[in-house]
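Give me the fold.
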Amino acid sequence: MDPVLTQAADWMDADPDAADREELGALLAAARAGDPAALADLSDRFAGELTFGTAGLRGRIGAGQHRMNTAVVTTATAGLCSVLLEDLGAGFHVVIGYDARHRSSSFARTAAAVVVAAGGRASLMPSALPTPLLAFAVLHLDADAGIMVTASHNPPADNGYKAYLGRRMSEPGAAGAQIVPPTDARIAAGITAAGAAKDVGVSADGWRVLGDDVIDAYTAQTVGLVAPAGPRDLRIVLTAMHGVGSRVAVRVLAEAGFADVHLVAEQCEPDPEFPTVPFPNPEEPGALDLAYAKAREVDADLIIALDPDADRSSAAVPDGSVAGGWRQLTGDQVGWLLGEQAARAHHGDGSAALARSIVSSSLLDHIATSHGLRAIPTLTGFKWISRAPGLVFGYEEAIGYCVNPSVVRDKDGISASAKMCELAAGLKAEGATIDDVLDRLAIAHGLFTTSPLTFRVEDVSLIAAGMARLLASPPSELAGSSVVENDDLSQGWAGLPPTEGVRLSTERHDRVIVRPSGTEPKLKCYLEVLESVSTHADLPDARERSQQRLAQIKDELARVLGF
């Protein structure tokens, strides 16, 4: 008998969820009857554990070891509780949030039941809410840990689970941030020690459900980021991408004085099927098509797009030179704009810092130093960015921005959107545009142009093969410029901890980083090219040269990686 059948049967016996047992039982019966598709499905579900790492858990919903389900949430929470109990003793406090994906609310209640049974106090968010509100609640309630059930911008079939640590569990300056090593390994060990899910203690009640006052407090803090006397004449189109962000975002904007907000109705209400987009990610091609149509209809000044759990945000601006009249800003461009805004507000404060992930544009470093602030590159992910000493603003190119780190020590699409609206309204009042700011930054610091190159795969072994090819035979030049730095990031770089990836830099100061995605089956390449410019007249030709060079580097990388 195939060993996977025994493994599946053992799992089914230990699974506390009746629906998951039924699902697995049907597959087992079909596989035992000789159905090859059922056997292949089981083999995938038991291809290994859904590993708890620094990004927490993320995977397809369903029964089995390698899926997101009640059993996995149960043992993951038991592992987290074992660490809290060891360090703090009984009475530790965990606040738990969830989005509107399939089974999110059920998984959140399972987590609460495990926390109570383990001797902790559990506070459940009052409804399906954005991830930034959970990150806020960890600090606001002085909780010892936070759990957020979300798969963010992943496809509809997925769900996930990530953990935050509060003041008593964190090093100075890191309270409210996501976990980093060695805590992830300690939780993983606790998961193993917990054993079968059916043996984990689960309470029938005893947790409390928070009131809307936590939303009120978050709203007040976020509204307070926007200068009260500034311009407010701005027509905004907002899409929540079928997620949980619209209600809180609209309230924040309204209380900040931005009343002219038009929702993309088809994407306004939470819908776990995400029916209008193949991937519920504002970065994906076509994701903003409905927002563009709405913006043309109402003659908008700015488009704001939140991802489904509203921890990330994107923006688009009018542009008569492109088809459809609207252009989405890159994640780096929004990072430059918000970074310049923050740097101006803290000008001359040598203790303040702007932080970016190493895959994000190095222009932020120049912005920071030009205002007398510190520039801090970090590893990818807000678990690292949010730990930068003296942080006043941090970002990653994947449309994640932290504009209020003392309140939300994580990326927050709602507060970032409020700051973008403040910026756009102020520029409109001056008769200027966001593009004017980008042009000024280019003339001051050089024209930095960035672009992603992403390979999504069905067979994840292709990712490792591509990385191996790059390490074994790295290019000696890119776009005609000699490669002068070739760094294997797994050996550490610039004082940062080791991480999987390769960094290449050329004599012309172009830069490429290649790394596997931490949350999706993708190999990701992050490209940046630099052109010197002196005046506005230099910009058109410099932009054309930059695009040509990016295209050439993409072709060369694809060949080297074997894609």
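The chain has a mean pLDDT of 96.
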